[in-house]
Each structure stands twice: as C-alpha cells, then as structure tokens.
Amino acid sequence: MLEELKQIRELLAAKPAPPPPPPEGLWNEFKTFLENYKVMGLAVAFIMGVYLGSLIQSLVKDLLLPVIGLALPGLSDLSSLEYAVDAQVFGVGNFLVALITFIIVAFVIFILVKITKKWGIK
Hints:
It is a single chain. It contains four helices and two strands. The protein is mostly helical. The chain is elongated.
C-alpha cells in the first residue's frame, strides 16, 4: 500500500516546465544573451564605477590633499611627499593618495550596497 501511495504521489507531483525552445536567428540569440546574463546592468555598473572612481580621485587630490597640506606645516602637497634613504628616494605621497582614494571608494560602495539591501534591490 505504501508503494502505491508513493506511485500516486509521483504521478500527482508537478513536473517542471520544459525549457523554452532556443531562439532562432542571430539577433534573437543576442537578445536572449543580453537578458540572461544581464549584460546591460553590468555595463552600466562598470561605467558608473569608472566615473565614481575618477570623481573620488578628484575629490582626494583637489580638496582633501590641500586641507591635509594646510594641517601639516612645511608640506604643500601630500602627493609630493618623499623620503630619502641613502641614494634611494621613496615617493610615499602618490601611494597615500591612492590609499585614501581606495578607502573612500570602498566606503561609498559599502554604503550603496547597504542601501540597496535595505530597499530590497539585488
């Protein structure tokens, strides 16, 4: 009896829908590719990321570094900060600029992800 109930359950279970037929023609295949892999969303995110990075780099170089230069006496521009050891010169300033830019970009992305999760956008 138990076997018969299992067979009835298998017969009544909903079968998954068959996959849709593949699109015919190059244009339809291309549209399906764009829809399935969300290529447009990825492209928009990439472009926004590039311009967000350049915006924050400008913020760091043009606004934050002069403020830091005012706070540190004798240093007009943080990006020109160098240390000499014997005959070697270590240009620490450009690394600090890149580090500050990275920290700000990472923080902005963190805030954006946090907001989108709160709104239910994935």
